[in-house]
Amino acid sequence: MSSRRMSAAVGLLLLTTGCSLFGGDGEDVPEIRREQTFASAAPRRVADAGPAPGIMREAWRIRGLGQEEQARYIRLEGGQLFIVGADGFDVHDAGTGRKRWHYREPGRELSGFAVNKDNLVIASRSQQGHHLTGLAAGTGRLRWERGGDEGTPFIRGHGNGLAMGEGVVPLLVRGEPTSGDEEEQPDEFLAIDAATGEERWRRPHHGPGCETGTRSAATDTDGSVLVFSESCGDDHYVYAFNPSDGKPLWSRTGTSEDSLVGISVRSGATLIELDEHTRTLVGRDDREIARLNGTGECLSPCSLLRVGDDLGLRHFDESRNVVMSLIDVSNGKVRTLTTPHDITSVTAGGRWYGVSSGLAGTLLPAGLNIVDMATQQLTTVPVPLNLESQGGSLRWLGVAGDHLLVDTSEGDDLIAYASTPARGPLELGGVAKDDWPDACDLLKDVPGKTIARTPMVEGPVKIGEQELARSRCHVDYSDDGDSGQAIAEVEWVSASPAEADGLVDGEPGLYGADEVQKTGESSVRVRKGRFVVEVQSRLSEDLQPIVAGVLASLG
What we know:
Layout: H1 3-10, E1 13-15, E2 34-37, E3 55-63, E4 73-77, E5 80-84, E6 88-93, E7 99-104, E8 109-116, E9 119-126, E10 129-136, E11 142-147, E12 152-153, E13 155-156, E14 161-162, E15 168-173, E16 187-193, E17 199-205, E18 214-219, E19 226-232, E20 235-241, E21 248-255, E22 262-266, E23 269-275, E24 278-282, E25 288-291, E26 305-307, E27 310-316, E28 322-327, E29 334-338, E30 344-348, E31 351-356, E32 366-372, E33 377-383, E34 394-400, E35 403-408, E36 413-420, E37 454-458, E38 461-463, E39 466-468, E40 472-479, E41 482-493, H2 497-501, E42 515-520, E43 523-528, E44 531-537, H3 543-554
Antiparallel strand pairs: 1-2, 2-7, 3-36, 4-5, 5-6, 6-7, 8-9, 9-10, 10-11, 12-15, 13-14, 15-16, 16-17, 18-19, 19-20, 20-21, 22-23, 23-24, 24-25, 26-27, 27-28, 28-29, 30-31, 31-32, 32-33, 34-35, 35-36, 37-40, 38-39, 40-41, 41-44, 42-43, 43-44
């Protein structure tokens, strides 16, 4: 039987034992019930490329991510997408979206997990106690398990990230309380080998000794440094360790009224933020790479981005423009680029990608802004996604290979978009401006009205180098003393009816349109072929004949 068919035959496993390695002095590992399937081989690596500017079309999607409180979050790790729920995750190929394997611990809460090369470590908890489990990241095979009550793992709140570096997972072991004249036992850092579950090293930690302090940890994407921070009121302490052996690399202290110090680590460099005016970038070798004081308020979360060979930080300038400071880690020089005000963004392949809910004005598709960091060139292209009808926000944005990955706040799917070259203007999805109808021409025949009408044009709408002069028109009319107003707004013209269909979630067949979506008491969005138009009427009884006239004008 081939390994692929054997994996299929395994199907669903209920495991209560594994290759157990006991933590502490003979500590019993609690039995864990597991549901899991396996992949037959490690995933194919995807390049850090990102899509080039072009026409964005759907390549594949992953369905069933859940909505609102039931929504699962997404992590992109080592060529795989982890779709994470309360008790485990489904793992998909980041290049194709195909499901590879899954892992769950029914009845337990997944508190955090981390991936480093082929090592995957999961921290979970229940009333029976804490637990650490080691899997092969590429296949989901169980490697080891360990009772987790001997020490506390470091979990970052955003995305349930478990601190890991160079194949070790650090735990904080609280010192035993003492009495009398005995010397107080210090806390300890205990490092667990991510591949075997065995103790790699431990070292004492003599903290500042405050009673109400807070502690946190972060680890960078390549795992080259472990950074630990703790706060005692207004005093903050930051320590960096070599993950492989626990030796100290550097430490910093500072004072701030903020209760927590912000930490972000990329490529061995650590950004320490005491407040929005005090930021320092420290290298793994204890070198102060740059001072970023006074750069302005960060866009949340305040974290470093990898931009080619540089590190980037997005923040507001004095005029409340959104900019990115690019730091050359070799010499500490900082240059600043203006970027669009897109809250959700990602960097890959030397480009910055930001998605906004609208392309320009009231045009229907979401907008994708792409900035080439080397040339500072900005290109804006449409994404065939209607964010306005889905809460107007993104839940997650990522890049895998040459695909842009998008998950909306109200959607149930993760969609991968690929870029293709365009014959026409990129800003209009490759559609020539001449293909856009004149909005006033759509209102040239309002049935049953006998008195002259006066058209009023709003505009123009500008997208990059493209300008749409007559995409919205008002017509005031009267009939036997009754006054009315009709409005037609061309919201989008797609290259094909199929692409336009993805923008409108409407009812087919009404008024003779392909789709009709109600947008107000006397307004509807209609799609006919590749044209999407919003039609409004001051008098609700006139809406149907006005829509009929618009559809007839579209041909």
